[in-house]
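Renewal narrative, Specific Aim 1. Our central claim is that a sequence can be written position by position from structural information alone. The example that follows is taken directly from our test logs and has not been curated for this report. It begins with the C-alpha cells describing the chain, in the order in which they were read.
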C-alpha cells in the first residue's frame, strides 16, 4: 500500500529535475573555506566561494570571534528587542554606519533576512515596488511579503524603468525602485547614477542591495553608493556580512528614522534571535581591517583582472562581468555541469549555476576570484580550463 508518508509527489518532482539536468547536490568541505580546500575528500582550488577577501578563516577574525565568545558567551539568548541586544551589536552598527558614511545601520541575522524584513516594512498597500528582473531571490521574497503592488523592469534597462515610472507616477502613494548593486550571476554593476536620477525625477525611493559589492566596490569596499559617489541619494542600502566580510549577517544603512522604524516593524529583527557574539566580534574586526587599509580590496581586484584577462584571451564567454564575479556561460545545463565535473576531476572546484538560479538555457560555471588566490593557483586553473574547454568544444 502506498502511504502519504512516502512523499511520492516529491520523488516525482525530483525525477523531473534529474531528467532535465536541474537537480542539485550539496558538496562538503573538510575544514575552512580557503582558496585551496578539501571538497568531497579531494584537494582542489576553490573558485566558488563568496569569501572575496579571504576573511572567513583570517587569524584576526578568528581571534576576535574567540574574544567575543569569552566576553559575551556562545549565544545572544533572545531576540534583540527583548534582551538579546548586547553592547557588541551596538558597536557593530555604529562602526558600519561610519564605514558606510550613513546616519544609522540596523543589523539582521543575514542578508536574506534583511531583505525579507525591510522591504515589507517600508512599503504598504497603495505603493508600487519596481524591481530589476534579475534581482536576488531574497528581494523577490521580500517584495512578496509586502502588500504593495509589484512590477519588474528589464535588466538594467533605463528606458523600461522610465516607462514604468512615467505610467505609474500618479497612481500610487509611493514608488520604490529596487536593484542589486552587483548582479550575483553575471557580475555586472547596476546603473545606479541613472536609477537615482530617474527616481528623483519621478519622486520614487531607491533601494540597493550591495551584497556582492560590500567589501568589493567603492573605497575599501564601501559599496556601490560610494563607488558612484551617491551618498545621501539612496534611501536604503543593504549590505551583507556573509560574503566579503567573511562571517554572517546583513544590514540596512540609511536615515536614523528608517532604522527606528525597522526596530519597530522589521519582522526578522523582532522575531528571530540576535546574531551570536562570535559572528558580531569577527565582523567588527573585518570592518576595522577595511577601514585601516585598502590592501585587501586592492589584491582582490588585481587577481580578478589577471584571471579575466587570461580567460578572455582563450575565448571563453564571460558575459557582461565588471567585477570579480566571472561567469563562463555555456548555455546547456547538462554541459555546464559536465564542464564543472571535469574541472573537479582535474583539481578545480567551480560550481555550475543553472535554472532556476539563472534563466533556462544560460547554464554556466561561475568563477569567484578572491584576494586569497595566488597567481600560481590562477595560472593552474586557466591551464586546466583551456584543456577541458577544448576537449568539450567550448572554446
Ligand atoms: C547573497 C545575497 C543575499 C543574501 O545574503 P546572506 O547574508 O547570505 O543571507 C542577499 N542579496 C543578494 C543580492 C545576495 O547576493
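The sequence written for that structure reads:
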Amino acid at each position: 500500500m502506498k502511504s502519504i508518508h512516502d512523499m511520492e509527489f516529491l520523488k516525482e518532482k525530483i525525477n523531473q529535475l534529474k531528467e532535465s539536468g536541474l537537480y542539485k547536490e550539496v558538496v562538503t568541505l573538510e575544514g575552512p573555506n580557503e582558496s585551496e580546500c578539501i571538497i568531497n575528500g579531494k584537494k582542489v582550488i576553490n573558485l566558488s566561494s563568496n569569501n572575496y577577501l579571504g576573511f572567513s578563516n583570517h587569524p584576526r577574525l578568528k581571534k576576535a570571534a574567540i574574544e567575543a565568545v569569552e566576553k559575551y558567551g556562545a549565544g545572544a539568548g533572545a531576540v534583540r528587542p527583548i534582551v538579546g541586544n548586547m553592547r557588541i551589536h551596538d558597536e557593530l552598527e555604529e562602526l558600519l554606519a561610519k564605514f558606510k558614511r550613513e546616519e544609522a545601520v540596523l543589523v539582521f541575522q543575514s542578508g536574506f533576512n534583511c531583505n525579507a524584513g525591510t522591504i515589507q516594512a517600508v512599503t504598504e498597500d497603495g505603493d508600487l515596488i519596481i524591481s530589476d528582473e534579475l534581482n536576488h531571490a531574497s528581494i523577490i521574497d521580500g517584495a512578496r511579503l509586502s502588500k504593495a503592488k509589484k512590477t519588474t523592469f528589464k535588466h538594467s534597462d533605463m528606458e523600461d524603468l522610465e516607462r514604468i515610472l512615467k505610467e505609474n507616477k500618479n497612481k500610487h502613494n509611493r514608488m520604490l525602485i529596487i536593484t542589486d548593486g552587483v548582479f550575483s550571476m553575471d557580475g555586472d554593476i547596476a546603473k545606479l547614477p541613472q536609477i537615482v536620477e530617474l527616481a528623483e525625477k519621478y519622486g520614487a525611493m531607491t533601494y540597493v542591495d550591495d551584497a556582492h559589492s560590500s567589501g568589493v566596490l567603492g573605497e575599501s569596499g564601501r559599496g556601490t553608493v560610494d563607488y558612484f559617489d551617491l551618498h545621501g541619494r539612496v534611501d536604503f542600502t543593504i549590505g551583507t556580512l556573509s560574503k566579503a566580510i567573511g562571517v554572517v549577517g546583513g544590514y540596512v544603512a540609511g536615515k536614523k528614522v528608517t532604522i527606528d522604524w525597522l526596530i519597530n516593524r522589521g519582522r526578522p529583527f523582532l522575531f528571530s534571535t540576535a546574531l551570536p557574539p562570535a559572528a558580531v566580534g569577527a565582523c567588527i574586526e573585518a570592518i576595522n581591517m577595511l577601514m585601516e587599509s585598502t590592501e585587501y580590496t586592492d589584491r582582490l581586484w588585481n587577481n580578478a583582472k589577471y584571471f579575466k584577462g587570461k580567460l578572455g584571451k582563450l575565448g571563453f564567454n564571460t558575459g557582461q562581468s565588471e567585477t570579480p564575479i566571472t561567469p563562463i556561460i555555456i548555455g546547456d545545463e547538462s554541459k555546464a555541469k559536465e564542464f564543472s565535473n571535469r574541472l573537479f576531476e582535474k583539481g578545480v572546484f567551480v560550481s555550475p549555476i543553472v535554472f532556476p538560479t539563472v534563466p533556462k538555457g544560460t547554464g554556466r560555471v561561475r568563477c569567484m576570484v578572491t584576494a586569497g588566490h595566488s597567481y600560481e593557483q590562477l595560472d593552474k586553473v586557466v591551464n586546466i580550463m583551456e584543456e577541458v574547454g577544448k576537449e568539450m568544444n567550448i572554446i
